[in-house]
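Before relying on records like the one below, remember that each one covers exactly one chain. Contacts with other chains, cofactors or solvent are not represented anywhere in the record.
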Amino acid sequence: MTMRWIEPVEERGGTAILLAGLLVSGLLLQGCMPQANGSIDDEDPAEDAAIPVESVRVRNDDVAAFYSGTTTIEADQQATVVSQITGVVLKIHAEEGQYVEAGQLLARVEPDRYRLEFERSNATLKRLEMEFQRKQELFNKQLVSAEDFERVSAEYEAQKAQVALARLDLRYTEIRAPLSGYVAERMIREGNLVQLHQPVYRITSYDPLLAVLHVPERELSVLHTGLDVTVRLDALPGTLFTGTVTRISPVIDPDTGTFRVTAEVDDPNGIVKPGLFGRVDILYDLREDVPVIPRTAVITEDERNHVFVIGEDNSVSRRAVMLGYERNGVIEVTEGVDAGERVVTAGKGSLSEGVKVQVVGIEPGEGVSRPSGGIGPGT
């Protein structure tokens, strides 16, 4: 007999209460009377015994294999600019954050001393050049000794080198960028006395930017140059960057058991900066249109995997499956089930071979459109 609950209704008078009491008494008496067929309950016992479960249909999708790791973005090229002379900074021409081209003027050092040194060396060179020419004419006429001519010739050549050095020092009073990039740091001010080889600027090139990972040696066989990567940066949430693996070190670090993998990161809008921390996913394999199921459908016992498959009569069968790639709670099934079959995802603990089930609740993944692109990072 099926019991029905009657919600109480408030009435101002006592008539409704009396009628409700009579109705309940009548129902109780009716339930105690034998039915015509001699059975108290007309309902199917098998239906009452069905175990409630949640399920999902096996579907086909693209699955991908990734290696994931953390990275700190690096610049491919950066240079510390040093002063090639000693002198007082006369003028600053580039500030931090400014983009500069290779060869562009960054700062100027007081040139007067070096200009005078160049002019003095050049004057000495002209005097020695005239002396050399005179001695050469006399030597050709055998009027001076070879030793005397060689001495003058050596002095002349040495002075030419001295003039070249003086010209170089004068040129070094203009500190220029060695490469195109951004001024990451300015280390001098106007009026400072800079010393020979003192760092004065740091220039960083953002083209390209690199994501560098240190990958366990077990992954060496599956990674190679040319693989696609995706990069997510903590400082830029919601923005996905792409790139390509460009370099793989063939040397394993004996201390860490890892090797270095370098990927170039595409940044068309110029918003990525060196030093940003993030996560990199390297796609190294893709399988298209293969059966996938939720990980919650899988039962693992004694290193073997099974699922409960619901038949057309709502009875379940326990079936062994072979599993493939897994990511974000979705797993590939390489053997055991096909697309369209229904597998149990919740309520598996009460099931055994052949029992009847009743699917209840909303079945995850059914009736919901899914964006294309398969199973990947963050999907």
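The helical segments are 15-32, 45-48, 112-140, 146-171.
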